[in-house]
Design goal:
The structure is a homodimer of 374-residue chains. The first copy, chain A, has 374 residues and is of the alpha+beta class. Chain A has two domains: 106 residues, Sandwich (Immunoglobulin-like), CATH 2.60.40; 253 residues, Alpha/Beta hydrolase fold, catalytic domain (Rossmann fold), CATH 3.40.50.1820. The first copy, chain A, has eight helices and 20 strands. In chain A, strand 11 and strand 12 form a beta hairpin. The termini of chain A are far apart. At the A-B interface, strand 10, strand 12 and strand 13 of A face strand 10, strand 12 and strand 13 of B.
Chain lengths: 374, 374
């Protein structure tokens, strides 16, 4: 008889193969699915999409359901288990990440570049959940702040990266799915990046904090919340910058401010850096959801785009970095945006990767973007 | 056809009843178990114990497995789902707590005293994960620090509560299972507690941080780790106090220091307060694992108990608070310890609650202990 607590799953072996073991004694069929598996075409309410296959597990002589991979490329992977059609988690793996409303188990093949996603024996920054007053949105709101190792004692002033999440994310996403603290600790320890403060705010203007962490209590998050990308966030963003610059030892000039974001956060970074066109010297658009906005809820935030971009161009940026995967559903929108920038001779650096609209790419982009800052 | 993302589970109704809904189309039998259910006697490797029943769910006309409770008493509850013998999580509930190696879904019936476990619309303190140098243990280690709302701007000095976890816990346990940030925010906002800093260190001397947060990477935690309660933690505890008192605006005298802990942490609080017998004016032993230690690994930490207690008694404490549940397996050990204190006329306050060795009690004890401090 198995005690579920005594099963080793997943077992990441030294050759980078992984074994999963599931105790489901009465199940007829157990499958595993996750981003380490090949994909297949599936039909979704939004059309055809690629999804990982649901691989059959097989019962060993002890009755355990087992699946063993070949050697996996270095990466932070996630997976689910499907027992007789019930898709849920592996009870032997206590490590989880929530993405919007779905929670999956994770494991790390920490070789090569993915070693930067692990906690290494290097000096560690401090990660704080803190609340700030957002008069522009009429509430107190929570954000996550990474201060680099030594911040508390150095007496020095630091540059700041504002790092924005996508639709469905919140102030926890870059920390959990994005491995920001680990990437920053490791890049700084390796001398590849300058010590900097990383501010991860919440970009959903109807939330004061991530689900479960705010006054709305526990509720199931959804992908596109009311008021998403209606301009209010961009218009109120100076509340965040003012808070950081009044509360932390930071360098308060354009040369020492960067803003970057993924998907909706890339959209936010594009618009915020253009609305305040002499504020950010470094701009990162990761798989940015750049598309025309017909609605004008927020009194002109999405008007005069060409004019404000021209001002931003005239003021200059040290780096305007655009990254996207070849199969991203936003690929064409980014082609169109680059054509607009080309037509106005606005300089930018373009990085095209494999893959689509996934966290794997956003971790890679962060790890490439940060060493270019300050 | 159900999309798992569109199911509402658990639904906490206004009358405090709760409905759980599980989509497991091919399952023969689905059960739910959790601490809101009555208990039954079960046989474990450690003898007979009380465990929640595994209640049958029933299929409704749409094929969803459903279980509805009667009105539940206010509390933070946890539960698991068992599909054809596979015990795991509810995929429609994105809120989890890990306890040692097992992860369960949670929900909150936030009436009455349990409203203090919810995030209310009150000023919020800052919660930080920070690393400190522990020369006594030869490593950098992580701890969790709660600073009350206003700390950063007030310029004032604050008292400090050192709050210790039990065996199997770590520097995250009081924050996740213990709801410390919510309890502190709410008690302070209600004027019931003084603003204070709460320091939650890691009491497992082989860990630098919680599983997954330290350099050991992802591994399955266990209940009693090597070197647990061998005296090294108590002996090295001044490293933590020195760090806090050099890094935060705190009042550095006995009158403004408190130490409390649950189970193993109660054992630690008892021994630390006795070893440094004029350092802590407030001591809280929550279901403390007070038992004789035969081993003497740490050069005398567990020797001379009577003599050091006598010194602690002579120096005096403002509060020596002992709390335990009537059915706790450590009940008799605490009777014995109180008899020792009685025999030496050492003053203490005793609080006996219903229930056993469970987090429900430790949250209640924290909420009662903190208003008595400073």
């Amino acid at each position: 008889m198995f005690n579920a607590q005594n099963i080793n799953s997943p077992e990441v072996k030294s050759d980078q193969s992984v074994v999963f073991r599931i105790y489901a004694p009465n199940a007829q069929e157990v499958r595993i699915t996750g981003d380490f598996l090949p994909t297949e075409k599936v039909t979704t309410p939004y059309g055809e999409a690629d999804a990982p296959i649901k691989a059959l597990m097989t019962q060993d002589q002890n009755g355990l359901w087992v699946y063993e991979t070949s050697a996996l490329a270095p990466e932070l992977y996630s997976y689910s288990v499907i027992v007789d059609g019930y898709e849920t988690t592996d009870p032997n793996n206590p490590f989880y990440i929530r993405d919007v409303a779905s929670t999956k188990n994770i494991f790390l093949v920490a070789q090569d570049f993915a070693a930067d996603y692990a906690v290494q024996d290097v000096p560690h920054g401090t990660l704080a959940h803190r609340w700030y007053d957002a008069p522009g949105l009429g509430m107190d709101r929570r954000l996550t702040i990474y201060t680099p190792a030594g911040y508390e004692q150095s007496g020095q002033e630091y540059p700041v990266l504002y790092l924005l999440h996508g639709a469905g994310g919140d102030e926890e996403a870059w920390m959990t799915l994005g491995r920001t603290a680990q990437i920053m600790d490791n890049l700084i320890a390796q001398g590849k990046s300058k010590p900097m403060i990383v501010v991860m705010p919440n970009g959903n203007v109807i939330q004061d904090a991530a689900p479960g962490a705010g006054h709305q209590g526990y509720y199931k998050p959804q992908f596109m919340m009311p008021k998403t990308m209606n301009g209010e966030y961009e218009a109120s963003f100076p509340d965040i910058v003012n808070f950081i610059e009044s509360q932390y030892r930071v360098k308060k000039d354009k040369a020492h401010r960067a803003i970057a974001g993924l998907s909706m956060g890339g959209f936010h970074a594009m618009h915020i850096s253009r609305l305040y066109p002499n504020t950010y010297n470094y701009v990162g658009l990761f798989s940015a959801a750049i598309m025309p906005r017909a609605d004008q809820d927020a009194a002109g935030v999405y008007q005069n785009i060409d004019q404000t971009l021209a001002v931003q161009k005239a003021n200059g940026t040290a780096l305007y970095w655009i990254a996207i995967g070849k199969t991203d559903f936003l690929y064409q929108a980014n082609v169109d945006y680059r054509q607009k920038l080309d037509a106005m001779n606005m300089p930018y650096v373009y990085r095209e990767s494999e893959g689509g609209h996934i966290w794997r790419n956003w971790r890679i982009y962060l790890r490439e973007f940060v060493p270019q800052l300050f």
